[in-house]
TrEMBL record:
It comes from Clostridium acetobutylicum (strain ATCC 824 / DSM 792 / JCM 1419 / IAM 19013 / LMG 5710 / NBRC 13948 / NRRL B-527 / VKM B-1787 / 2291 / W). Gene3D superfamilies: 1.10.1580.10, P-loop containing nucleotide triphosphate hydrolases. Belongs to the TRAFAC class YlqF/YawG GTPase family. MTG1 subfamily. The lineage of its organism: Bacteria, Bacillati, Bacillota, Clostridia, Eubacteriales. InterPro entries: G_CP_dom (IPR030378), GTP-bd (IPR006073), GTP-bd_ortho_bundle_sf (IPR023179), GTP-bd_ribosome_bgen (IPR019991), GTPase_MTG1 (IPR016478), P-loop_NTPase (IPR027417). It comes from the Bacteria. GO terms for biological process: translation. This is Ribosome biogenesis GTPase A.
Length: 283
């Protein structure tokens, strides 16, 4: 699967990084969207340095698919004087009503200054950033209350900058998804693959499912047993995978394991939260 050797920096992504730098002067703050299950892996390392002078809100999206206590720890670890971390479900709109109060708090000196000049209803302009497939378009659509951004489960659907108005005194600047040039760490690549941030077409689904079972049997054995009605967990992930295939009838003629089918079942059920609330990373 050689995830760490994939080069993910096509021209439009290099262009996006440039655009973010150039357009920062047009906005008051930055909203960065990450996946609550992979908070570290779904961040772009460049964002911290590029946006360091701007107040920032980090949205931990799909929080309902992650373990609550771990998400709470991430909120504490990420929050600072100039950063607020907020767990959200962008698709359903849960948690989004915390954004305006957080922006008001982060931008208080500027808003007080505007009010002193007689500008009462100042429109806060915010740049939205994030790697592909973390839910950026879903967030923008929910905030705008209409389908202004293309939504797809394929990474990198958004291709150009656009301004989106909301009815709560915030204007959003959308940017294309940014992913870094190279996966320096195999774990980061795996986490992105588990959650679907990397195109499935270039992954070996069977190896991916095996690695996922390996993680789950170590960190969430009870959830694995409960979901697939397993009597016990074996040290060998392949045996666990075979047992899941048998329980789900993912078999070929003659009783052989249909590895492609059982792999798709495991990965899909993890992504949809059917195995349970799972965090792949801790702060």
């Amino acid at each position: 699967m050689m995830i760490e050797s994939i080069n993910w920096f096509p021209g439009h992504m290099a262009k996006t990084t440039r655009e973010i730098r150039e357009n920062l002067k047009l906005v008051d703050a930055v909203i960065e969207i990450r996946d609550a299950r992979i908070v570290y892996s779904s961040s772009n390392p460049d964002i911290n340095s590029i946006c360091k002078d701007k107040p920032r809100i980090i949205l931990l999206n799909k929080f309902d698919l992650a373990e609550k206590s771990i998400t709470d720890n991430w909120v504490k670890a990420l929050s600072s004087e100039s950063i607020r971390a907020i767990p959200v479900n962008a698709l359903e709109g849960r948690g989004l009503n915390s954004i305006k109060p957080a922006l008001n708090e982060l931008l208080k000196p500027k808003l007080d200054n505007m009010a002193a000049k007689g500008i009462q209803n100042y429109i806060i302009r915010v740049m939205v950033v994030g790697i592909p497939n973390v839910g950026k378009s879903s967030f923008i659509n929910k905030m705008a209350k209409n389908k202004v951004a293309k939504v797809g489960n394929k990474p990198g659907v958004t291709k150009s900058k656009q301004w989106i108005k909301t009815n709560i005194g915030i204007e959003l600047m959308d940017t294309p998804g940014v992913l870094w040039p190279k996966f320096q760490d195999q774990k980061v690549g795996l986490n992105l693959a588990f959650t679907g941030a990397i195109k499935d077409e270039i992954m070996d689904i069977e190896e991916l499912a095996l690695k996922l079972v390996q993680f789950l049997q170590k960190n969430y054995p009870e959830k694995l047993m409960e979901r697939y009605k397993l009597e016990d967990i074996n040290e060998d992930p392949l045996i666990n995978m075979n047992n899941i295939a048998a329980k789900r009838g993912a078999l070929l003629k003659g009783g052989e394991i249909d590895y492609n089918r059982v792999s798709i079942i495991i990965v899909d059920e993890f992504r949809s939260g059917k195995i349970g609330k799972i965090s792949l990373e801790r702060p």
